[in-house]
Design goal:
There is one protein chain. The strands form seven sheets. The chain has a three-stranded antiparallel β-sheet with strand order 3-2-5, with no helix packed on it. A three-stranded antiparallel β-sheet has the order 8-7-10, with no helix packed on it. It has five domains: 2-110, no CATH class; 127-176; 180-280, Band 7 domain (Tetrahydropterin Synthase, Chain A); 281-324; 330-372, no CATH class. With 372 residues, the chain is α+β, with helices and mostly antiparallel strands. Strand 16 and strand 17 form a beta hairpin. The protein is built from eleven helices and 18 strands. The chain is elongated and about 165 Å long.
C-alpha cells in the first residue's frame, strides 16, 4: 500500500521506517510504503524530534548542514538572535535551529555571578522571561542594600536593576530616604510623688547611613523607641506631677537633646521630638477638676467683692459731692423727677417739705398708680 506525503516550503520531513530514523526529506511530494512514517517539522522552530533524540538527528550530515547548533552549560544562558534580532533565551542543553532561510546567532552568558554585562541592552533584558532574571526597582525616594548569598555587595540608588537568577541568591532591602515619623504612645511612668502617668511622644527622623543602619543596628526604630522611653523615665522620675504639667516645653526639649545624642549610634538624624499627650489617672483628673472649679469660684468671688467695693465707693463719693454742692443736689432732684415722669402721667406735690423727700416717697408707692 502506497501513501502520499507533501512537505511544504517552510517544512522538513523526518523519515522513519519501522520506528528508526532513515533520512531527511526536503520540501516536495513523496510516495511511501506502509512501513514508512514521516514526522513533519517547521523550519521556523527549534529542531526537536518527537520520535528520536536530537543527537540521532544531528548524526545525519544533511541535517547538520542545514541547522545551527549551540551547546549551553548548566551555569550558562544563551541569548538567541535570529537575523540580528533578539528572539529568546536558551537554558542548559543542546539546541538546534534550521538555518535554511534564517541566520541564528548566540551570546553565551555566565550565571555564576548575578552581575549582568552592561553591554547587554536594557530592551533585551526587558524581553527576557522573569524566570531567568531578578528585577529590582528602586524608587526616587528609596535606596536598596544589595546582598549576594547573604553578603552585602553595595548600595543601589534610584533606578531599575537586573541580575541573573542562577546559583547565587540575590536579595535587596529597600529603605526610605524620606523623613519618617515615629509615634510612641502610652508610656507608663511614675513621678517623684508616686503618680502614674501615660505620656505619648512623636518624633521625626531621617536615615543618614543606609549601610550601617541595617548592618550594625539590629532595629534602628526599636532603638529610638527605647531611647525615648529612657529619656522620659529620667525626666519624669525626678519631678513631681505639678512640675511636669507646668514644664511640658522643658520635657520636649530634654527629650530632643537625649535623642540627638543617640544619632551616631542609630545612624539617623533627629529632626523633631515633642510631647503629644500627658494622660493622668481617672482619680487624679477628678481631683484636679475639683481644684480647678474651686479656684475659678474663688476668683469669681474676688471679682464680685471688688465690684461691690467699687460701687459702694462710687456712691459714697457721689453723696459727698451732693452734700458739698447744692447745684449738684438740685440736678439730682431733676434726675429723679425725670425718672418719675417716665412712669406716671401727673404729679401733685403738697406745699412745704423737702422736694426730694416727697419725690422719693412717690417712688416708693405702687408702680401701678398713675396719679399722686
Amino acid at each position: 500500500m502506497i501513501k502520499t506525503v507533501t512537505i511544504q516550503e517552510n517544512e522538513m520531513g523526518l523519515l522513519f521506517k519501522n520506528g528508526r530514523y532513515q533520512k531527511l526529506l526536503t520540501p516536495g511530494k513523496y510516495y511511501l510504503t506502509r512501513a514508512c512514517e514521516v514526522e513533519i517539522v517547521s523550519t521556523e522552530e527549534e529542531l526537536c524530534g518527537k520520535r528520536c533524540a536530537l543527537a540521532a538527528l544531528l548524526a545525519d550530515k544533511r541535517i547538520r548542514e542545514r541547522t545551527s547548533v549551540v551547546e549551553v552549560a548548566p551555569s550558562e544562558l544563551a541569548l538567541h538572535y535570529v537575523n540580528g534580532r533578539f528572539k529568546d533565551v536558551l537554558a542548559n542543553g543542546r539546541h538546534a535551529f534550521w538555518s535554511v532561510s534564517d541566520k541564528h546567532e548566540y551570546q553565551l552568558v555566565s550565571t555564576l555571578s548575578p552581575e549582568i554585562d552592561p553591554e547587554i541592552p536594557e530592551e533585551i533584558l526587558c524581553a527576557i522571561p522573569s524566570a531567568y532574571l531578578w528585577k529590582v526597582t528602586v524608587e526616587e525616594y528609596q535606596k536598596a542594600r544589595l546582598y549576594f548569598n547573604k553578603r552585602f555587595v553595595r548600595l543601589l540608588d534610584a533606578g531599575i536593576y537586573y541580575f541573573w537568577n542562577g546559583a547565587t541568591e540575590v536579595k535587596t532591602v529597600i529603605m526610605d530616604t524620606r523623613v519618617t515619623g515615629l509615634n510612641i504612645t502610652g508610656q507608663e511612668l511614675l513621678t517623684q510623688d508616686k503618680v502614674s502617668l501615660r505620656i505619648s511622644v512623636v518624633l521625626d527622623y531621617r536615615i543618614t547611613d543606609f549601610v550601617r543602619f541595617g548592618t550594625e543596628v539590629a532595629n534602628g526604630t526599636e532603638r529610638l523607641h527605647l531611647a525615648a522611653q529612657l529619656a522620659l523615665r529620667e525626666f519624669v522620675g525626678l519631678r513631681k506631677l505639678d512640675e511636669i504639667l507646668e514644664s511640658k516645653t522643658e520635657l520636649a526639649r530634654f527629650l530632643h537633646e537625649r535623642l540627638k545624642a543617640e544619632e551616631p549610634r542609630c545612624f539617623v538624624e533627629i529632626l523633631m521630638a515633642d510631647v503629644k499627650d500627658i494622660i493622668l489617672p481617672g482619680e487624679i483628673r477628678q481631683i484636679m477638676n475639683t481644684v480647678l472649679v474651686a479656684e475659678k469660684r474663688a476668683q469669681a468671688n474676688v471679682i464680685t467683692r471688688r465690684e461691690e467695693v467699687a460701687s459702694t465707693r462710687s456712691l459714697l463719693n457721689t453723696a459727698k459731692l451732693m452734700d458739698e454742692n447744692r447745684t449738684l443736689y438740685k440736678l439730682k432732684e431733676l434726675e429723679y423727677i425725670e425718672r418719675i415722669c417716665e412712669n406716671v402721667g401727673n404729679i401733685t406735690l403738697s406745699p412745704g417739705g423737702d422736694l426730694l423727700t416727697q419725690l422719693m416717697g412717690l417712688l416708693g408707692r405702687d408702680a401701678s398708680e398713675k396719679t399722686v
